[in-house]
Amino acid sequence: MQGIPDGWLNVKFIDAKQAKESYQYKNIKRKLYKANAAIWYNKVCRQKQLTSNYISIRINGKNQQCQKTVRAASHFRISQEIKFLYIKKQKLSEQLYNLHLKCATIWQNYWHIIQSTIDRKLQQEMDTYYNNLNHELDKLQNMQHGKNKAQHNSQGQQFYPRTVNLTKIKFTKEEMALLNHGLQHSIQKPLKTYRINLIIETEQAIKLLDVKMQNPFRILAAKKLKQILNSNSHYNATQKRQAYIIKNLNYRLVTENAIIVKADKVKTTVIIYSDDYSTKVHNFLTEKNSRHFKKTQLTNTKNYY
Q1: For the residues 29-36, what does the mean pLDDT come to?
Q2: 149: in domain
Q3: Which pLDDT band, with edges at 50, 70 and 90, does 155 fall under?
Q4: What is the CB neighbour count within 10 angstroms for residue 243?
Q5: Cα distance between residue 24 and residue 30, in whole Å
Q6: Are residues 91 and 199 in the same domain?
Q7: Are strands 269-273 and 163-165 parallel, antiparallel or unpaired?
Q8: Rounded CA gap, 76 and 72, in Å?
Q9: Most confident residue range from 29-33, 64-68, 107-111, 173-177
Q10: In terms of domains, do 57 and 107 share one?
Q11: Exposed, middle or buried, 28 (CB in 10 Å: 0-12/13-18/19+)?
Q12: Residues 39, 131: one domain?
């Protein structure tokens, strides 16, 4: 059968109905994934106050009040689009559920193999689809960069810089905003990347308890894990966008042979070339800022403390 890797199983269609049901399942699941991607895209646009290309709102006048009206109308249009997409997602989920039951009845034991193959192919398609959406968001930000400028520190307070760039690499406003969070900023990963490790670590922790207490804690842990797996709030639009920005940052730093380090006494992130960093460390150690100790001196100091 087309779509199943060689060496797994030799599955053949008995009639055209089997092929029809499986391809319908694949197409509806693709539509569902794209609906989720559209919801994510519109949420990012609403959060960053971007006007998508499908929104066309014109108004006479270019004063501040007219621009404010256009922004409010665009925000309302995006909110309505998100509501429509959630309704569409609900209907597609119901259709996908019914087709899943039909295909499981037709294929029986072979269905989980076909389903995993379909999921793998759709995941590859959606990775490309999300990259295209991220590129489109980058274009929208570059086009509308000067429209919404926030003014901070209007009273003239001077704070230490959160990020210092000692290279010639030019970063976007969104990349600098992410770097300003600091090196301790953590981006939550998709649940599918760590759920197996989470289950294994939970079981290892339970085994450390008394034998009589293990089963009750297993029941509690199973309920909690089901709540985590079924929750929809573990990976939002902002985190997905930040993961894309981090990927681009890593690629640019590797290409330009630069690194990110923490400043000495403040919480400032410094971007510097690797060769310049090695030179600074070498100069610091050679310019009478270090002292050579013999092994016996180190041993005596250790015993003293």
Answers
A1: 92
A2: no
A3: very low
A4: 16
A5: 10
A6: no
A7: parallel
A8: 6
A9: 29-33
A10: yes
A11: buried
A12: yes
